[in-house]
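Batch manifest, entry 17 of 40.
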Amino acid sequence: DLELHLQRCQQLSVTVLTDHQDLSNTELKTIINSTAPQQYRIRAKLRTYKPQKLHQSVKLHCSKCNSLQEVPDRDDFDFILRGSAGTASNPELHNTSWYESVTWTTQDQNQREIAIHFVKHDEMLQHPEDTLLMIEGGTLKEIWKLSKRFKCVIPVRSTEDDLELLDLSAPFLLQGSVKYYGCKQCSTPKPMKNLSSLAAEQQPSWEPTEIAQALGIELLQYVFIMKFTLVDETGALNAYLFDY
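Output type: structure tokens
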């Protein structure tokens, strides 16, 4: 457990980073005054590390514009879904050549209308574990249930001409427990009809990268980031961990 390991490191008087055993120890002052890139072996104390909670280390990174952003929380997604639930599904967009639609009205006070569009392959519905579906008007709980059973779930809303993605603050795709996000700055969202070419492939794999490309989405990647402050008698050095 990294968090426990870091706590132990702070308790030790000296922490030795064991990479580059063939190199002799270098003082932090020398490293600070050197030009990068270089390889060094150091002997230093770990003074601090950030963030303190490991889950805060996970961010979303866009490789195109190099931006970093926080992973939206559950409440953000729920708020966007509630907003889109007020938009009625367009019946003219139901049951096309490449997806089959099912609609019903919930029995709760709001009497929401939910529409689910199951993408077909060779004019046939696929097994749930191979199926991509698009949902209008669903709640967070309903979408999570569907994502456990079906391969891919895309929350959408109706326009006059086509189905479209929600605000990119929401995940544009869910696969199991993984939520995929797009970069607001670099994406140019396209209507859902652009998925029909993937559905027509011999064996649609519904890979997130392919779906993102078809929908004009610049896919954000989950990255792990931490900052360590290392000290010795000669100075202090900030070390950053950035990893996919």
